[in-house]
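Side project, low priority. Logging it here so it doesn't get lost.
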Amino acid sequence: MDRNLGVYLVTDAGLSGDRSTIEVVEAAIRGGVDVVQLREKGRPAKERYRLGLELRELTREAGVTLIVNDRVDIAGAIGADGVHVGDDDLPLSVAGERLGADAILGRSVSTPEAAREAERAGADYLGVGAVFPTGSKQTDPEQSEIGLERVRAIREATDLPFVGIGGITPDTAGDVVEAGADGVAVISAIAGAEDPAAATRRLGEAIR
């Protein structure tokens, strides 16, 4: 995978106000989003599958990478570009076997040791966090508010591209990239913004 992770949107209808996930993704595409991850953890598999088919069509037309969070079966069923897994999901090796050699494999990490382990296991990129306080995901203390120093340590530990995630806004995105990240992954900074397209553009400008 190249290092152009840029602005990486993680979907969550619960943080999108009165907008649908499709509307948020359409706006993010207009704003120049680089990667979209289908998350939607609270939805049944059938709904995530149907939503995924719509997102696959949108992202394919826009030339945007589509990743599915944790569900290797849904990623394969909708023809996603890859899957992102965490500590409680299938091992990277199993995900790779099921999705094929061309699939992009992402892994969530919070420490340099975990980053090195993920690189050895075959990850193509990492999600590093939570960098700042976040209300969108429950994390263990070791994985909460890891800060920019930990981001720098993870950069020194691995050559893999990675996005910082967790509480990142347009005001802090540049700091995360300066600390070593190749992009930033956000949920509420786009989904909860008054203008998701403008928020996506601001994040892109901050990264650049």
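Brief comment: Residues 45-62 form the longest helix (18 residues).
Revisit when time allows.
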